[in-house]
Amino acid sequence: MKIVQGIKKPNESFIIKDAVALKEPLVLVFGNRYMLESNQIYDEVNTLFPDGHIVFGTTSGEIIDDNVLDGCVVLTAIEFEKSSILVKRSNVADFHNEDKKLGERLIAEFPKENLKHLFVISEGSTVNGSALIEGLENMENTSFGLSGGLCGDDDRFERTLASYNENPKEGEIVAIGFYGDTLEITSSNYGGWTSFGPERIITKSKGNLLYELDGKPALDLYKTYLGEKADELPKSALLYPLSVKATEDSDPLVRTILNIDEVENTMTLAGDVPEGSRVQLMMSSVDDIANGASYAAELAMGGRKNSPELALLISCVGRKLVMDQRTEEEIEEVKAVVGDNTVISGFYSYGEMAPFSGQDSCKLHNQTMTLTLFSE
């Protein structure tokens, strides 16, 4: 595996570190939405890697090595020497918000034989990540890993962009399939958030749209808890996500709010919030988040046969808001576990995709650090 990385700052060209020639590389380009709106961004990257498979995604912060950047673009180009990749894309507009069907159509484009892992870069503004995952996992007689994340737009929640081999645009979902017997790919996630306050029951919801808690308008209740911070919704919701437990035996999932509808008094969350689920508010601290990142890295490293050569990190924008000027500490914690020889890239997101530890089925998470580790 050969890896080249670069950084582009506003009004500057890419600065490529340790540039070497790569053959048909996978080129991951994560960046600030305003910078990826440039009509020249694809041509600029394509000039650097004319035979590359170029995947773009907007962010709420860019990760490269143990640094967290804002308002920049980070590039990671990977040549797999013994393995192969296949990239496919689709758009939510073509499926009329039927995200499960989109996932089913997308996974059907990937040959089943030797598919080791699917890494997904999804638009993050409107997609129901739970439904998308359910569709992507609808592939019979095949076992493959699934991880990835929802693109971000800092804390603006205006629009997110992604693309494959073209300028980034709205509504895109890009899936990267990894094939090869020599590939070792592991993924994990962990949060570090603590529940508090009364437990309530979801009495009315549809998919990722939340109407009522305990028979009362959910948005009104949430605003009551937020107090003065309610005026800053949906940004302020990142500091107080919801713990959602669908059944007594299920692992709780963390959900953050993507949008609110003042007229309908509803909240749109990044993933499903089933009726009958028990929910609580959550909060965290800088130390809890840093420790959570370290534990996520330990889970990803557990049972690996080989040291990872590449680590793709997707962490939630809510964690970044809590960490503030200490954000890089959670990346440093990850690096301390995966090792100095592992190339690190990634971004801050509106949602993370990974299975719970010890499970095969992928879930949509919020407020977690998610790692996907690669070696050949």
Automatic annotation (TrEMBL):
<feature type="domain" description="FIST C-domain">
    <location>
        <begin position="218"/>
        <end position="356"/>
    </location>
</feature>
<dbReference type="InterPro" id="IPR019494">
    <property type="entry name" value="FIST_C"/>
</dbReference>
<dbReference type="Pfam" id="PF08495">
    <property type="entry name" value="FIST"/>
</dbReference>
<feature type="domain" description="FIST">
    <location>
        <begin position="24"/>
        <end position="217"/>
    </location>
</feature>
<dbReference type="Pfam" id="PF10442">
    <property type="entry name" value="FIST_C"/>
</dbReference>
<protein>
    <recommendedName>
        <fullName>Histidine kinase</fullName>
    </recommendedName>
</protein>
<dbReference type="InterPro" id="IPR013702">
    <property type="entry name" value="FIST_domain_N"/>
</dbReference>
